[in-house]
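Final report, results section. Input specification for complex C-07:
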Amino acid sequence: MSSEFDTAAAQLRLHDATPAPVTSSPVLRGIGLRKKYRSGTSTLEVLRGVDVELAAGEFVAIVGQSGSGKTTLLHLLGLLDAPDGGEVHLAGTRIDTLSSSKQDLIRNTQIGMVFQSYHLLPELDAVENVLAPLYVRYGMLEWLRRRHDARQEAVALLERFGLGARLSHRPRQLSGGEMQRVAIARALIARPQLLLADEPTGNLDAASGAGILETLTELNQSDGLSIVMVTHDTAIAARAGRVIKLADGCVEQQLTTPGRSAHAPPDFHERPARAGG
Amino acid sequence: MYKLLLCWRYLRTRWIALASVVSVTLGVATMIVVNAVMAGFSHEMQTRIHGILSDIVFESHSLSGFQDPDWHMEEIRRAAGDNIAGMTPTVAVPAMLSFQVRGQWITRQVMFIGIDADTHASVSDFGEYLQHPANRQQLSFDLREGGYDTQLDSDAESEPLRPALENAGWPYRRERVEQEKLWRQQQQAAGGPVRPLDQHVDAVLAATEDPAPPSDTTNSTDLDAAAPIDPFRQARPDEGRTMDPATEQFAGIVPGIGLASFRDRSGVDRFLILPGDDVKVTFPTAGTPPKAVSNTFTVVDFYESKMSEYDSNFVFVPLEELQRMRGMIEPETGIGSVNSIQIKLAEGANLDEVRDALRKAFPPELYAVSTWRDKQGPLLSAVDMEMAVLNILLFLIVAVAGFGILAIFFMIVVEKTRDIGILKAIGAGSSGIAGIFLGYGLALGIVGGGVGMALGLTITWNINNIRQAVEWWTGQRVFDPSIYYFFNIPTIINPFTVSWIIAGAVGIAVAASVLPAFRAARLHPVEALRHE
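Structure output:
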């Protein structure tokens, strides 16, 4: 399994230890995405040909009413679901038609995901939850070789998010905001170029939610991380550089927030350089 | 990596799953204990069966037997080559054993076997079963001056004693004769009729001279006939002298202990006859048609193989005596006949091969060749069958436990649906997810089987302590030695059987986790993440 992963990783060297080069070409593109759900005899068309584009270093918010298909869109972009029509491109490569093991690899290495209800593994503590993508990526021996560095990296990320005192707490011992920050650290541990966030503040009180948004904004601005965030709250969406509004499975309008632009300083993760990455 | 980690974490946190393997544990423990005890019983039984029988019995179809056992033994050696370790000729005839207990004659049907005291020990463990230590070294048909074992084995206070054997042998015989004389004198002084009440006095025959040829049955006494008035005069007419039972004995005889004793409820053996008593045996002569002859023998020892079929059936006498009494010795040449030859095989020789070789070498119309297993074939195969059926039944218990695991695993998969979604979202493949649950099943199987093995082995090793504790607790005899003829539950742990049981249990646990694992692997990440 791990060797298969490694070969595929070599072929798909979209990402490396060095930060993704900032280009104007879109890092993520959805073209004419369609998705239907069948329940019994009736068919519900959730997405009817949605085009989205995310430039490198951009922070895009997708807003819309409940049932407008925004979460489904995010799942399609994150390869959690397969579109009934349309294409998903990541850094110029079509990814929705790849084999499932390659899609697994892309999810593991290229895309970080954050969910509304955190989705941490209850049996693992904070550091282990952050390390989960690396656990998945590496086989036993590979992991034993890397565990020291990986753990340091996870601890560094958690400390950066102010969780230095919560390293060995289980998720149920953490508050909502803390859990969400652990989840963000988990999404970043694999150093993806892309972060997909599904209502990251939806379950949080205003203060914690604001903290999470602050974190996301900072990741976007100082680290150049490309972010797609789904939210139903236009006030939260206003923090993004661009807002895509979905209604009835179609893009209703796109707004660029004034004063915010897609730019990215080259330094993504603030961490000591590691030999060989 | 995550598979191992999660398996380990699930193992440590899901107590319900551990509960589901309790049945595997119990099943494994039961199977180990039952197999060990059954193997112990079976081994014990085989040892006993084999103890009295030699490896291969070469016998004649006729009661008169065949002449010249030496020639036959040479032929056997020629046919079977180096496979033969020892041979001894025997004569076995059906007979009636009679003895008097408190004036009452008791008659039992027995198999009367003449053995060669010198060579018989080389073909079977017969000697080991005797009650006198010296006889165990070298069997002698002479009555011993006391010293018979009163304790059964060396250990344990729970074992029954045999106080009656304390005085057995010559001291007992002298005492009996003395009492007999006293009683007789009293009776005569009282003027009452003298009735023979004891075989000591009743059946005195000259033992020093050659008895008459078997066709000459003038001296044979019918047991049902009226007992002679004065047994001291009953000696053969040509003998002309009476025998002093206080210093002389008849030909020695070794009956099975089951013929001579019974065990009372307290576990003490009560003896009907003792070494030193005289008994009568009625048996057929070698001629055609056979005639019944009777002779008197002195009990010199008992054997106890603990195989009740043998202990209450076989009676051993010196081969030469029996040959003479049955008329099996050719008067001109002095060559005797026997009706079977007991053969012991060399270490590592194949029982069935030698048997087949002998069957080929000798005409089957005249001789029957059988192994000790053949002789007890139905019994041994019944035990094997019993063991197989028990194993199947017990394995079904473990299999039922498998369904318990299946159900619990489905529950766990449902409970862990969201976690499965998370793992898929961060890039875990379907095979990896299936691996978690298969690994979990394997881990549970190993834990269940391992604990079961520990439990089973502990119970097996301490089964006799447990038995004693249960007996003490309930006041009931769990394991009645008078039924089984041994005092500790015998156990044999076969590592091969144990590993098969463990492998089976682990296999069932893994098999039960296959379906839930597949279900988990096929979960759609989006649906799984939505699951609350």
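The two ends of chain B are 27 Å apart (CA to CA). The longest strand of chain B covers residues 84-101. This concludes the modelling results for the funded period.
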